[in-house]
Amino acid sequence: MNWLNKKWIITLAAVIPFGAVDAQKRLTLEDPTGKVEVCITLDDVIKYSVSHEGDVMIAPSPISMELMDGAVLGKSPRLKKQSRSSENSVITPPLYKRKTIKDHYNELVLHFKGNYSLVFRAYEDGVAYRFLTNSKDSLFIKNEQAVFNLPDNPKIFAATPKGRTIDGEENQYHSSFQNTYQHVNLSEWDKNRLAFMPVLAERRGEKKVCITEADLLNYPGMFLKVSPDDKGFYGHFAAYPKDVSVEVRGLKGVVKTREPYIAKVAGKMFFPWRVMVISEKDTELLCSDMVYKLATPAAEGDYSWIKPGKVAWDWWNDWNLYGVDFRAGINTETYKYYIDFAAKQGVEYVILDEGWAVAGPADLFQIVPEIDLKELIRYADTKKVGLILWAGYRAFDLDMERVCKHYAAMGIKGFKIDFMDRDDQYMIDFNRRCAEMGAKYKLLIDLHGTSKPTGLQRTYPNAINFEGVHGLEELKWAKPDTDQVTYDVTMPFIRMVAGPVDYTQGAMNNMNKENFKAIYSEPMSQGTRCRQLAEYVIFDSPLNMLCDAPTNYLKEPQCTQFIASIPTVWDETKALSGKVGEYVVMARQKDEVWYVGALTNWNARDMELDLSFLGEGEYQAEIFEDGINADRVGKDYRYRTVKLSAGKKMKIHMAPGGGFVMRILK
C-alpha cells in the first residue's frame, strides 16, 4: 500500500460555503451521544477545547503548523468552508482483541485558505484532530504546535525516556521507550524531561484523559513536555536526522546532527491524528479501540496467511538448558530442542534471537557456523513449527527486500526487528516500510525496540506486535528500586490504549519483593506464578512469548500446558474491574471459551468477580490461584476446578504481587 495514494472518503451531511461562515468565530462538534463536545475558536489563532458532560477535559489550546518557508498554518486563519459528516459502521479486523469494532462518530472538516484543512472527530469516548495539506509542492515542516491544556494542576501518569549517553550527555531522543510511570502533579514533572506517549491525566471525579496519536506513517512521533506555566502539555518532536553514525556491533544508528526541520512530506498529506481518549471509569481505558479506528484501513485482500500465536523464546532465558547431552547455546542442537518443546506444547513459533547472524558486518546473509539454518527450517517444518528471525534495524534496512525475499523463500515466517530506539521521521517510516515489505513476502513483523503503536497493525495486519513497553526483559538488569508489579497494573490503562505489547511474560522463577534479584543469565519475575499466567489474559499480544527455558517449563507441565493453550487474539474482550496502579480484572472469549485474568499490586487483595457476562447455563472452570504461601514463595499456586452458573459472583484472593486466572467452558 502506498500511503500517499490513500483516499479520503466521507459522506457530507452539510457543506457550508465561505460566505456563510466568514464571520463565524466559534464552531462546535458533539459526539453522537451528546456527551463529548469539541469547541473550536477561530481568531488570530485556532484553538480547541474538549468537554465531557460539561466537565473540562482539555482547556482551550492552540493548534498550528510552521513550515520552513515561514508560513504558519493556523495563524490568522481564513475559513473557506466547513463540512460535517457522521459515520456509524462496523470494522471487522483480521486479528484483534474482538471480532468486530463499532465505529460511530461525528466529523467536522474546516477548509482554510492556504491549502490546508483541520479534521475533528468526536466519539463517545474521546476526540481526535489532524491536519491535511493540499499543496502542489513538497513541504518541510519546521514544527507543529499541539497543545493539551489541563486546568487545576491534575495528577498525571507519565514515563520519561531513559536517554542514551552520546558524547558524554544524555540524549532523550535515543530511547527504547521503556520506563515505569511517575504519578505526580503536572507541576511536579521535570520540565527538562520529555514524556513519551501515551500519557494519562486525571480529571474531575474518576474521569481521565489519555493523550496519544494515531495513523503515524511518515512523520516523527510526538513527545510531550510540560509547559513553563504548568498549564498542560505541548508536543515536542525529534528533528530529521542528518548525520548518523553506526554503533553497537553495526546494528544501531546514532544521530550526531539533525536538520532544522522535523519532517519533509508530500504536498498532499494526511498528518497524524492527535488523540484524546476519555474515560468515566478506569476500566473503559482497558478496552479502547480509538487508535485502531483512526488508523488507515488495510488494502483489500486475503490476510488469512497471518497466523498469530505463541513463541518459544531463547534470549530472555539466555539459552540456559540443562539435563541435556549437548552444550546449550546458539547452535543447531539447542534450537532443535526448542523446536521439539514447541511442537510438544502446541506452540506455533520459535524465535532465533540475536546471535544467529555474524555480529559486526550487519549482513543478515552471514550466518554463524554453529547454525545450520536450512536444517532447522526443514526440521521445524516436520514438527509444524514456524521459525522467526531476529534482526537489528540497520542490517534489515540495508538490504530489506533481498532479505525478505530470500528468507521467505527458505520458509522463514517472520522477523523480529530490534534496536530502532528512535521515533524521528526516518525511523517511523522505517517501521512502515518493514510492514509493507513483510506483507509483500507474507512475513510477520514484530517491531521490538521501538516506540508505541499508532495503528500500523490495522494498515498492515502482519505488523503483529510492538514493544515500547517496560516488559519482563527489564528484570534481567533491573535496579533494586524497580517496581515491575505496580507497572503491570498501570500499563494496561495507558500503554495498551495505543495497541498490543511485546511484553514477553511467562517466567517460572517467581519472587516476592524481598527475594527478587536481577540476574541476567537466570532471570526471575517479581510477584507470583499466577501473576505470570494471568498476564497472558490481561496483556494484548497477538504474538506472545514463552520467555523461560524449555527445561524450566518441562518441570512445570500444568502451568506450561495452560499458558500454551491460551489464545492470543480474541472474539470478545471485557474489562470487569480495575483501578490504575492498583488492580485489573479482564475477561476474554475465544470460540465460546472464556478466560478471566486478574492482577494486583503489592497489596494482597480480596475481590468478588461478577460473572454476569456468561450466558445462561452451567459452566466448568479451571482455576489457577495464588497458594497460601505465595507471599513467601512466589511459585506457590493452587489448581482446582469448580462449577459456575451465569449471573453468580465469585470471591477470589490474590497475594501481594499476585494474580488469578481461570478458563471457563460450558
Question: What can you tell me about this protein's structure?
Answer:
The chain is an alpha+beta fold and 666 residues long. The strands form 7 sheets. It has a 20-stranded antiparallel β-sheet that branches. Strands 30-29-28-27-26-25-33 form a 7-stranded parallel β-sheet. The protein has a 6-stranded antiparallel β-sheet with strand order 34-35-36-41-38-39. It is globular. The N terminus is likely disordered.
Task: Write a concise keyword list for the protein shown above.
globular; 666 residues; 7-stranded parallel sheet
What fraction of residues sit in β-strands?
35-45%
| Helical content class | 10-25%
Q: Structural class, please?
A: alpha+beta
SS element count, helices: 13
Shape: globular
Q: Tell me the quaternary state.
A: single chain
Number of strands: 41
- The chain-level mean pLDDT equals 95
* Rg: 25 Å
- Low-pLDDT stretches: 1-13, 15-23
Largest sheet: 20 strands, antiparallel
Distance between the termini: 43 Å
Question: Topology, please?
Answer:
Blueprint: E1 14-16, H1 18-21, E2 26-30, E3 36-42, E4 46-52, E5 55-67, E6 72-73, E7 79-91, E8 101-112, E9 116-123, E10 126-134, E11 139-149, E12 155-159, E13 164-166, E14 169-171, E15 182-185, E16 195-202, E17 208-214, E18 222-226, E19 232-237, E20 241-247, E21 252-258, E22 263-265, E23 268-270, E24 273-279, H2 290-294, E25 309-312, H3 332-345, E26 349-352, H4 373-382, E27 386-392, H5 393-398, H6 400-410, E28 414-418, H7 425-440, E29 444-447, H8 456-459, E30 463-466, H9 484-488, H10 495-498, E31 510-511, E32 525-526, H11 529-538, E33 543-546, H12 550-554, H13 557-565, E34 572-579, E35 583-590, E36 593-600, E37 605-610, E38 618-626, E39 637-645, E40 649-654, E41 659-665
Parallel strand pairs: 25-26, 25-33, 26-27, 27-28, 28-29, 29-30, 31-32
Antiparallel strand pairs: 1-7, 2-3, 3-4, 4-5, 5-6, 5-11, 7-8, 8-9, 9-10, 10-23, 10-24, 11-19, 11-22, 12-15, 12-16, 13-14, 16-17, 16-18, 17-24, 18-19, 20-21, 34-35, 35-36, 36-41, 37-40, 38-39, 38-41
Helix pairs in contact: 3-4
